[in-house]
Design brief:
By secondary structure, the chain is α+β, with helices and mostly antiparallel strands. It is built from three helices and 13 strands; from the N terminus they run αββαββββββαβββββ. The strands form four sheets. A six-stranded mixed β-sheet has the order 3-6-8-9-10-11.
């Protein structure tokens, strides 16, 4: 199975999706998704402004950066991540996933399973320490932490309007009052 995952990852790296689309690898599947809607971008901006204000000097925000984990044959593209400034030295389109401080996802209305199942399964395997999952369909927020091969060991759950305790390296409470739900 590991060989198949690596073959799929290698093949996915050769793809050039049309403008407005992105390529990810989850297990033995290649996932191609459309870029997000304006409401999605609004909620991401609300989160990003707060994370930026508490971002350590050695990290930088990056939207839609490919996080690659060759150890487990995964390639994921979170809506927002914070990576070391030193990552720019590689000059490529991929960053080793284990260098990411957090992966932020706003659930897509067109393909929610990718965010709610695939990425929740993949991010701990890729050794991403924090995963913030925001679901504008239901107004739900989940913060995962303490990754392992069996998943995240810690999970905080809340609703829009709650304050989310974001741990180090950011170490603050994320206000979610201004997040907007998708229309029913």
């Amino acid at each position: 199975m590991a060989d198949l995952n690596h073959q799929v990852l290698s093949y996915a790296r050769t793809l050039s999706p049309p403008s407005g689309w992105k390529v990810e690898v989850s297990g033995d599947a290649i996932v191609i998704t459309a870029t997000p809607c304006v409401l999605h971008q609004h909620d991401l901006l609300i989160v990003r402004k707060q994370l930026d204000a508490h971002c350590p000097a050695d990290l930088m925000p990056s939207e839609n950066t490919d996080l690659a984990s060759t150890n487990v044959g995964k390639l994921r593209n979170p809506d927002l991540t914070y990576i070391p400034l030193s990552a720019i030295e590689s000059g490529g389109n991929e960053v080793p996933a284990e260098q990411a401080a957090i992966a932020v996802e706003i659930v897509s209305p067109s393909n929610p399973e990718n965010d709610l199942v695939g990425k929740v399964r993949n991010y701990p395997l890729m050794d991403i320490p924090l995963h913030l999952l925001i679901d504008p369909r239901e107004g739900d927020i989940t913060l995962y932490s303490e990754p392992s091969a069996s998943g995240y060991h810690q999970q905080w759950n809340g609703k829009f309007g709650d304050r989310v305790p974001i741990p180090a390296p950011f170490d603050f409470e994320l206000a979610t009052d201004d997040l907007v739900r998708y229309p029913a």
